[in-house]
Design a protein that fits this description.
This protein has a domain at 8-25 and 41-50 and 125-345: Penicillin V Acylase, Chain A, CATH 3.60.60. Mean pLDDT is 90; it is low at 1-9 and 20-30. A hairpin with a 5-residue loop joins strand 2 (130-134) and strand 3. The strands form two sheets. It has a nine-stranded mixed sheet. With 359 residues, it is an alpha+beta fold. The chain has helices at 12-21, 54-71, 82-92, 97-106, 111-118, 203-213, 217-224, 273-278, 281-294, 297-303; strands spanning 41-48, 130-134, 140-146, 155-159, 166-171, 175-181, 185-191, 233-239, 244-249, 256-258, 262-263, 320-327, 332-337, 340-345, 352-357. Helices cover 29% and strands 25% of the residues.
Length: 359
């Protein structure tokens, strides 16, 4: 059996673990497609487009060839029909259907694009990440996104697709890796540490849905309890009142909500020991929890720019691409690198581009 492309991006220890335990899953778990141009620079842009239009279509057309290849990597028959996709979206996230139909129209109305954009039962994928919710004083959600840099869309979107404005880091064409809404709710995701793939939606779309439809942690928890997620994922949520929760979601199990303000890449207990050890999931989680108890607010955020939370292992595919610090009460977010801070807010959103050299 030939290893799929995603395996070569993992740390050697994790690759060895897969060789020993998870060969049967090689064809189920893949990285998302490459979107960044070759080279060491990370290209980022901020776009304000309240309703889907020309800006979204332009970027869809640029990314469609790689997304199409990713979606069909297991063959067309492995993906659900358009009817099944639309039915699932209407059943579980009906508020998104008008936006979905608009995006399908902008994408040309084709069957394949419509199925992919539903993000229902897509191929599996793995991400890294550490995240924590600061609740002493002004609430702050900080996260590191660890992943192959060439596979980041790199688009910070300000949208208003429903009743709420949303700012977040785009993924899967209309989903989000992390973000906040103007009601004062912030959320970010991490991989949940199991290699399972099953029925449900890709987690970036679920993040989008929560921010489009929920005002606080309580409402978000209710939504997450009923939406199927196709792969194990962890979500940390924080609202302007300081309420927080971490959700462990994924196929084959009921969602579990825990009163823990931090998470990395396991769901309470480690279920993939070799992988968790290779990416230091437990070590990073302990670090975030320790910081929540000992650091001040500024020190908590700064610690995400340093080891062991910040990784420079880009050659192995799981370096820290960016740090995001969301302030749900003020509507501000800082995208950070060791020597660069890029701030955006609902009050003052500045469209434009940035180039970051990852070290």
């Amino acid at each position: 059996m030939t290893r799929p492309d995603w395996v070569r991006w993992l740390p050697p220890e994790a690759t060895a673990a897969i060789d020993r335990h998870w060969k049967a899953l090689w064809e189920q778990l893949r990285l998302l497609p490459q979107r960044q141009p070759p080279g060491d620079a990370l290209e980022l842009e901020a776009i304000e487009e309240l309703r889907p239009g020309a800006a979204w279509r332009e970027r869809f057309e640029a990314m469609w060839p790689t997304y199409r290849s990713w979606y069909l990597a297991e063959g067309d028959a492995a993906r659900p029909s358009y009817a099944a996709c639309r039915r699932a979206l209407a059943q579980h996230m009906p508020e998104l259907v008008p936006t979905y139909e608009r995006l399908v129209e902008l994408a040309g109305g084709g069957d394949l694009a419509a199925r992919l954009l539903s993000l229902y039962r897509p191929p599996g994928f793995i991400v890294g990440c550490s995240q924590g919710a600061w609740t002493r004083g002004e609430p702050l959600l900080v996260r590191n996104y660890d992943y192959p840099a060439k596979r980041l869309e790199g688009i910070v979107y300000l949208t208003k697709w429903g009743e709420r404005r949303v700012i977040g880091m785009s993924d899967c064409l209309w989903g989000l890796l992390d973000g906040m809404n103007e009601s004062g709710l912030a959320i970010s995701l991490t991989f949940g540490g199991r290699p399972d793939v099953g029925d449900g939606f890709a987690i970036p779309l679920v993040v989008r849905y929560v921010l489009e439809t929920c005002d606080d942690v309580a409402a978000a928890r209710e939504a997450l309890a009923r939406i199927p997620v196709h792969a194990p994922q962890n979500l940390t949520l924080l609202d302007r009142s300081g309420a927080y929760v971490t959700a462990y979601v994924g196929p084959g199990r009921e969602p579990r909500f825990v009163d823990v303000a931090a998470t990395t890449n396991h769901q309470g207990e480690v279920e993939w020991p070799e992988y968790a050890e290779a990416i230091r999931s437990e070590e990073r989680e302990r670090c975030v929890l320790d910081l929540l108890g000992s650091a001040d607010r500024e020190g908590f955020e700064e610690a995400f720019l340093e080891p062991p939370l910040h990784s420079t292992a880009h050659e192995r595919g799981f370096g820290t691409i960016y740090t995001a610090a969301y302030e749900p009460a003020t509507g501000r977010v800082r995208y950070r690198w060791p020597e660069i801070t890029w701030e955006q807010s609902f009050e003052r959103f500045e469209p434009g581009s940035r180039t970051v050299t990852l070290s």
